[in-house]
Amino acid sequence: MEKDGKFAFSVISDPSKVRLDYDTTILPPKQFLFPPEEKLMEFRRDGSPAKETIDETKRILFGVHPCDIWGMTILDWIFAGKYPDPYYQTRRKNTITVGLNCTGPRNEYCFCQSMGTYTVDKGYDLMLMEEGDNYIVHIKTDAGNQIVRQNSDMFADATADDTKELSNTLVNKKMKAKFKRKLDIRNISELLDFTYGSPVWKEFGDRCLACGACSYVCPDCYCFYVKDKMDLGLQNGERDRSWDCCLYVDFARCAGGHNFRKDRATRLKMRFFHKEKSFMDDYGRPACVGCGRCIKSCPAKIDLTEIFAKLRGG
């Protein structure tokens, strides 16, 4: 949905307000699977059992770009991996994702082509691929197939020419050349090891405001903190979970007041080491999907593609 020239995922009751020509939403669809703030449980002082508050709302995410679907897939690795999170898993299970393929960069900040997230082959139920005045629809799951069958009057079989033309569009070299921003991820884990003490970190750390905007708009940042709240009578309470950010000055503060990442340069470096090196080492790809939201939202105009170009000596 568009508002004041910006786009956001929102509950839609009027189909005419759906915009499939949007560039990038302010916040990624992460917000519907892992909300900025959520209640985990309620408890009482009288000793009665605590009550979980798991959101079981069924929803459809419509028109999700491949980079954001990749972001959701990375969240799956975290919240449905070794330590499954029932709150995330329940939302994910109750969410149908209808993707929308891109036919070029959505705005000047995109560098998904560099990150291998320009296309996606999993994590969605249906994928819409623009072809002239129509859309070719790829069915990925049983849930997606059921939607098509229940609305069969809206669909027709794609021809061989349709799919051939689409394939040509997706691999078109001229289209790839439209991406102005690029990030070289070759040997990125080794690069970060080698440049751990680089002055580049202080250069950009001195510019960083530690506002956390980059983390909040990122499709796959997942740090959070947990707090308990009591009512004024101290009889009833709730446990809440909220988004956190590794750039905040209190993020690494320990009991006793020691802070092992006091300066912004160290925190900025930690953010990129985690997203680019740790994920590459553990999962075989960085936790960056190239959507460009962090670049667009940064009030200090910090551009991670510029950081890595300088680390490579560019």
Give a topology summary.
Blueprint: E1 2-3, E2 6-7, H1 30-33, E3 37-44, E4 51-52, E5 59-64, H2 66-79, H3 86-93, E6 95-100, H4 112-115, E7 126-131, E8 134-139, H5 142-150, H6 160-170, H7 173-177, H8 188-194, H9 200-207, H10 213-217, E9 224-230, E10 236-243, H11 264-283, H12 293-297, H13 304-311
How would you explain this protein's 3D organization?
The structure is a single chain. With about 325 residues, the chain is α+β, with helices and mostly antiparallel strands. The chain has one domain (about 1-310). It is about 35% helix and about 15% strand. The strands form three sheets. A four-stranded antiparallel beta sheet has the order 4-3-10-9, with no helix packed on it. A four-stranded mixed beta sheet has the order 5-6-7-8, with helices on both faces. The protein has a two-stranded antiparallel sheet with strand order 1-2. Strand 1 (about 1-5) and strand 2 (about 5) form a beta hairpin. Helix 8 runs antiparallel to helix 11 (about 265-285) and helix 9 crosses helix 11 (about 265-285). The longest helix is centred in the C-terminal third of the chain and has 20 residues, at about 265-285. The protein starts with a strand and ends with a helix.
